[in-house]
Specification:
InterPro entries: cNMP-bd_dom, cNMP-bd_dom_sf, Env_Response_Regulators, HTH_CRP, RmlC-like_jellyroll, WH-like_DNA-bd_sf, WH_DNA-bd_sf. Residues 146-219 form the HTH crp-type domain. GO terms for molecular function: DNA binding; DNA-binding transcription factor activity; kinase activity. This protein is an alpha+beta fold. It is built from eight helices and eleven strands. Strands 1-8-3-6 form a four-stranded antiparallel β-sheet. It has a four-stranded antiparallel β-sheet with strand order 2-7-4-5. It is globular.
């Protein structure tokens, strides 16, 4: 139902032949990152690509007034940071951790060498890149034409999809995102978001456990998001 706005290349690695996987694994250097730690920043030159083993990463832009707009969230199993290398440009956005994360780094030279050796990896990565840009463009266009309440509902549905895993029942999925980050994703003030979330709780659409949010009524949230 919201699949065209959900981009996930977490299965890309699984689709590779064993030889191609070995090339990547040998080139990877893994590091633990703390919550709110920057991975790379807008305007800097790329020196490699990243693979998210565990955790969540936000991709965002900062406007001239210093306001942050989250445009994408990466989940475990996704590659990121490679578009700048392929386009031979600086990073056009900033990424940082939303929670403690484990991230593998592949140097630019190793990445380009693997691309030359693996036609399968090259094809899958280019396909994923094209899809990611298409999804982000569609999402931004949709959010810009919706009310804050509609954007909040849609953002919760998207986040639910990002936080689920294959072995987790739908009713147990908790969205663990700070109210500041959620407000930045919705594109509104934190106070406005708080009022909307309180309304959603009163309407029994969601339940909050600390800062974590559980969706109770998907059908009504989809209706509020004006998304079918």
């Amino acid at each position: 139902m919201i699949s065209k706005f959900i981009f996930n290349n977490q299965y890309l690695f699984d689709e590779l032949p064993e030889y191609d996987k070995d090339l990547l694994l040998k080139a990877m250097k893994t590091k633990n990152y703390r919550k709110n730690e920057a991975i790379f920043t807008d305007g800097t030159k790329p020196n490699g690509i990243y693979y998210l083993n565990e955790g969540k990463i936000k991709k965002y832009k900062v406007d001239n007034d210093g306001r942050e707009q989250i445009i994408y969230i990466y989940s475990s199993g996704e590659f990121f940071g490679y578009s700048a290398i392929l386009s031979q440009e600086s990073y056009g956005d900033t990424t940082s951790t939303l929670e403690n994360s484990v991230i593998s780094f592949i140097s630019k030279d190793n990445f380009l060498e693997i691309l030359n050796q693996s036609s399968v990896f090259s094809g899958l990565l280019l396909k994923s890149l094209s899809h990611e840009f298409s999804v982000m463009a569609n999402l931004i266009a949709v959010l810009s034409h919706r009310t804050v309440r509609e954007r909040a509902a849609l953002s919760l549905l998207i986040l639910h999809d990002k936080y689920k895993s294959s072995d987790m029942p739908e009713e147990e999925i908790l969205i663990s995102l700070s109210r500041v980050d959620l407000a930045n994703m919705v594109g509104t003030a934190r106070e406005t978001l708080a009022r909307i979330l309180n309304d959603f709780k009163q309407e029994k659409l969601i339940k909050s456990e600390g800062r974590k949010i559980r969706i109770l009524d998907f059908k009504q949230l989809i209706h509020i998001a004006n998304f079918y």
